[in-house]
Amino acid sequence: MSAIDYFKQAPPISRTIAASAFTLSVLVYTNFLSAYWVLFWPSAFLQLPPQIWRLVTPFLLTGPQLGIIFDTYFLYTYGAKLERASPKFTQPGEFFMYIVFVCTTIIGLNMVLTGTTVFTAALVLAFTYTSCQDDRGQMATFFVVTIPAQWIPFAMILLTFILNGPTAALISITGLVAAHLHDFLTRLWPTFGGGRNWVPTPAFVRRWFETKTDTVTHKPYGTAFARAQSGPSASGSSSGPLPESWKSRGSGHRLGGS
C-alpha cells in the first residue's frame, strides 16, 4: 500500500489535523511563513476583517525540531483512535463537536491562566486523556515504563514539567481539564446525575458527517458495516426493515395454528 492510499484510508478528521500540523510547522520553522500569522492574538479579532483563522492555527503549530515529529504523531495516533474506535463517538459529527468544545475550552482557560499563543500541546493532552479513559483498566507502555493506561496523560504532564517547566505543564493541564469537562457534560452527568447532554451534536453537523455510501470498517472488536445515511431511510420515513411490498400483507399466522 502506498503512502497516498494509507492517507486516504485514515480517519478524515485526524489525518487532516496531523497533515495540517506537520505542514504548517515545517513552513514556520523553515521561515517560509512567519509565526506572527499563526499565533493566537486576541487583538486580531477586533480588527476588520477579523483574522478568524487564528482560532485554528494555534492548535496546529508543533514544537520545533523533533517536536514536529512527536506532536504530529501523537495528534494522529490518539485522534485516529478516538475517531475510529472510541465508544464515546458513535454518531456522525460527535468527534468534530468534541474537538470544537475542547479547543474552545482550551482557549478560554489559557487566556485566563497562561496567556500563551500556541495550544497544540493542550490538544495533544486532550486527545490522550480521552483515549486513555477508554482503555481504563488496561496497562500501557510510556517510553520504557509500563503503567495503567489512565495514568499516561499525567505521566506526559510530569515529563513536560521536567523538560520544559511549569508553564508548559500548565498548558498541557488545560487540555486535560477541557477533555474531562467534555466527558463530565456528555457522559458522567447524564448517566449518573440524571441530567442531559450539554454538548449535543447539531443536526447540520450530523448531516456533514453522515455516510453517503455503504462502508465496511475494521474495528478492534470486529467489522462494522455502515449503510448510507442519506435519502428517505436516513430521514426516518421508513417504518421498519421489511420491503415496502410486504407492508400491505396481513398479520400472518403461525404454521399449524388455527
Feature tags:
7% strand, two-stranded antiparallel ribbon, 258 residues, transmembrane helix, single chain, two-stranded antiparallel sheet, Rhomboid-like fold, mainly alpha
How would you portray this structure in words?
By secondary structure, the chain is mainly alpha-helical. The chain has one domain (11-223): Rhomboid-like (Rhomboid-like fold), CATH 1.20.1540. Helices cover 51% and strands 7% of the residues. It has 9 helices and 4 strands. The strands form 2 sheets. Strands 1-2 form a two-stranded antiparallel sheet. Strands 3-4 form a two-stranded antiparallel ribbon. Helix 3 runs parallel beside helix 5 (120-134), helix 4 (94-113) crosses helix 7 (166-192) and helix 6 (152-164) packs antiparallel against helix 7.
Q: How do you describe this structure in short?
A:
This is Derlin. The chain is mainly α.
Strand content: 5-15%
Q: For the CA atoms, what is the radius of gyration?
A: 22 Å
Number of domains: 1
Structural class: mainly alpha
- The name CATH uses for the topology is Rhomboid-like fold
Q: Mean pLDDT, as a whole number?
A: 85
Query: Can you identify the CATH class?
Result: Mainly Alpha
The total count of strands amounts to: 4
What low-confidence regions span 5 or more consecutive residues with pLDDT below 50?
231-249
Shape: globular
Architecture, CATH level 2? Answer: Up-down Bundle
